[in-house]
Amino acid sequence: MVKVGQGLNRWFPRKTVLPKGDYYTLTWGISYEFGGRTTVALERSSVLARQGNQRVTILTLAPEMKDRDRESELRADGRIDRRVSVRNLWKDLTSWSDRKLRRMAGTNDMADAGPVESLPRTSDAWSEYRFGSNGEVLQVDRYADDGSLLLIDQRDTIKRGTKGGRLLTLLDSKGSVVKQWNGATDLYSAWLDTVFAGRPSYVVNDSKLTGRIFRNYRRDNVVYAQMLHNHYLGDQTAGTGELSPQEFQYLSCLDRFDVAITLTDHQRADMIDAGFSSKVLRTVPNSTADLHGDPKAHRNRCQGAMVGRLVKHKRVEDALAAVAQSLGRVPDLVLDIYGDGTARTMLEQTRQALGIGAAVRFHGHTQRAKRHFLEASFSVLSSRSEGQGLVLLESMSAGCIPIAYDIEYGPRDIIANGINGFLVSPGDTDALSEAIVRVTTMNESELAEMRAAAIDRAADFYEERIAKRWGEVFAEQRFTPITRLPDLNAKLESADVTDERIDLKVNVDGVDGIQPESVAVSWTTRQRYFSSKSPASLNGSSLSVSIPIDNFMNVPPDRIDFSVDIVGGRNLNRVRITSGDSKGRNVGTVIELYSTKNGNLSGLLPAGTAASGV
């Protein structure tokens, strides 16, 4: 029984599934028609709140959420548990008293003060804008709820009228400067610091955007977990190893986080093999709700369902082609598609061109679409890639037999082919059609057996087990001081390039006070999204490394930059290798090493005449 006016955690028996501390989910915003990533973030927040009897706060940065009561809306829709709250940066700042605003000053040095000129206020809106000649935003003034000027965000501090340089000035209600920052990330970080208030805190970041923003956010009192919801490669079919452009900035430095979460063991193993990290990668699958599917309940065996965004990546047109191929043998076949997106018009045109108008029904964005799996006989997943494929688990929990492309990642980790669902070679619409026909023509006893097996498999992902796994991962972490190596430097001693490898010897200083957990030489391209690292040995101040030339064979023409990575003390310390003029044999058939105008070691792909001074 809860006593009125008393803290929730005090009067409910505390479970031990989660370590003691404050818990947060971090994301950019929560739109009204959100996709799977936000769905997972909301459901995981609720799972941790329920299973740990723990308050969980969802932190958002989007300005458009300032005037929205998303917490009440989400709770009314059954999207979040009563222990989950939603907090927004701008809703805080615009409502805070001067005393609370001054907490944003923190202990960091103030940015160099520049000229601060506010815009004329033309309406009651909380934001005023100044635009450039091409329509770009050059200044935003934000107003507090009491009408006082709160923040001046100038984005043309180098040359007025031309975007470049930034100065954000936070003001109190009297117009006095509280703090100035030279970038929005510093403002966001100051807000997080006030939210966490020095208390032991566990933060799970779900958004690609906030992943990039906070890739360098490290605090002694904060355990930071970065979710890896999707395939880490940008194009899973090209075989080039190029990273996802949206996630490149933090994928190339994963060891900066306390922990990085993959949804399947398969992806974690691939990322370890690719050299991303062996220290911080852990697997925690998404959970799925118990939909209480009945394997013997009557269903129309010819009715299928798809749930997901209608975008190119989901390859829904393959499902339409498979339906068209199946209709000759299953004339009563119907596929209901729940979701919306940029590809909907194209898909409706495809449906018309295939002449399957009666067999495919588009329902658009639908609240609680997963409930429709309770009525459908089978589901279809035809994506190019997935992080895990939550819809598979939802389908199986409902007793709806999944038919899925055997893609990376998820389906093969969940489905036992022919036992609790079907796996089909990616892109093979003939095989997809055959699987659909097989489900629709199986006898009732076989269908019931397969549905029961699907429900049993889904139970492995119910929230009790997944919350326990989160507790195990968090329990591994420690709130020990973050180790920074401000004097770290790396100077090239010699370089030898052959057709098989690059051998580097580097003198490393400034590692005093840390016992490295790993040492490596990393590289990233400048124009594209390639990154890798090779383990190095460090003996005293002498570092040596051999980088296989094969690492660069699939990289298109570009320039690459080399760094030394020292991992230890809950941190990745990375520093460019200085080279002066490169020493040794440094021209090969694949790569040419050279020294930049700043005296750093770089490489040119393909080999040619390096423009020294670039």
Tell me what the structure shows.
- The chain has 614 residues and is an alpha/beta fold.
- The chain folds into 4 domains: 15-93 and 189-283, Glycogen Phosphorylase B (Rossmann fold, 3-Layer(aba) Sandwich); 112-181, no CATH class; 303-461, Glycogen Phosphorylase B (Rossmann fold); 489-605, Sandwich (Immunoglobulin-like).
- Helix content is 24%, strand content 25%.
- It is built from 16 helices and 28 strands.
- The strands form 4 sheets. Strands 19, 20, 21, 22, 23, 24, 25, 26, 27 and 28 form a 10-stranded mixed β-sheet that branches.
- α2 packs across α16 and α12 (390-397) packs across α15 (444-458).
- It is globular, with a radius of gyration of 27 Å.
- Proportion of β residues? 25-35%
Mean pLDDT: 91
User: What summary fits the major beta sheet?
Assistant: 10 strands, mixed
| Tally of strands | 28
**Helical fraction:** 10-25%
CATH homologous superfamily title of the largest domain: Glycogen Phosphorylase B
Tally of discrete structural domains: 4
Say what oligomer this is.
Answer: single chain
Q: The CATH topology of the largest domain is what? A: Rossmann fold
Low-confidence stretches: 1-12, 608-613
> Do you know the CATH architecture of the largest domain?
3-Layer(aba) Sandwich
Output the radius of gyration: 27 Å
Please tally the helical runs, counting DSSP H or I stretches of 4 or more residues. 16
> What structural class results from the helix and strand content?
alpha/beta
Distance from N terminus to C terminus (CA atoms, Å) equals 69 Å
What attributes characterize this protein structure?
single chain, 614 residues, alpha/beta, Rossmann fold, 4 domains, ten-stranded mixed beta sheet, seven-stranded parallel beta sheet, 16 helices, 28 strands, 25% strand, disordered N terminus, disordered C terminus
